[in-house]
Write a structure and sequence with these properties.
The protein is mainly alpha-helical. Helix content is 47%, strand content 9%. The protein is built from five helices and four strands. A hairpin with a 2-residue loop joins strand 3 (47-49) and strand 4.
Length: 151
């Protein structure tokens, strides 16, 4: 049973099979790389390849959109409370959080990104007042021990 299908590239083609969604193997590969391959959604999707783009109507939610990862949410919350979300460094911290939350990030990449994210957050968000750092507590104990030993 032949029917017309609009491919992710914007081309309309005549599909011989009910399951056909792509006009060529190239479009199928592009869709796979873009994360568009999976169960067929009930409504249209947001798709963009080159200059061709299709968008969802405002009233219809994107069925493939996932909730924001916890690290990204926590970073956004901390930056908003500090009033630094819309700064260049704040946006850099958001990008790093998003990259760390990516399922495609390697362990080495996450370790490197985590170090930079931690440094950025320390520079952007002041520490909570009255909450001593664990290293400060250790240094204070050592200082008291040294004083007691010398007395």
């Amino acid at each position: 049973m032949e029917h017309d299908v609009t491919c992710s590239c914007g081309k309309v083609f005549r599909a011989v099979s009910e399951r056909a969604r792509y006009c060529s193997s190239t479009c199928r590969s592009r869709a796979s790389r873009a994360g568009l391959v999976g169960p067929k959604a009930a409504g249209p999707k947001v798709v963009a390849f080159g200059a061709v783009a299709a968008t969802l109507p405002a009233s219809e939610p994107d069925p493939e959109r996932q909730a924001e990862p916890p690290l990204v949410s926590a970073t956004r919350c901390e930056l908003e409370s500090a009033g630094r979300l819309n700064t260049a460094l704040g946006q850099q911290a958001m990008l790093l959080a998003d990259r760390m939350a990516s399922p495609f990030a390697s362990a080495a990449a996450v370790a490197s990104l985590a170090k930079r994210h931690s440094d950025l957050m320390a520079a952007l968000v002041p520490p909570a007042p009255g909450k001593p750092d664990a290293l400060d507590e250790i240094a204070e104990r050592r200082r008291r021990k040294a004083e007691a030993a010398s007395a």
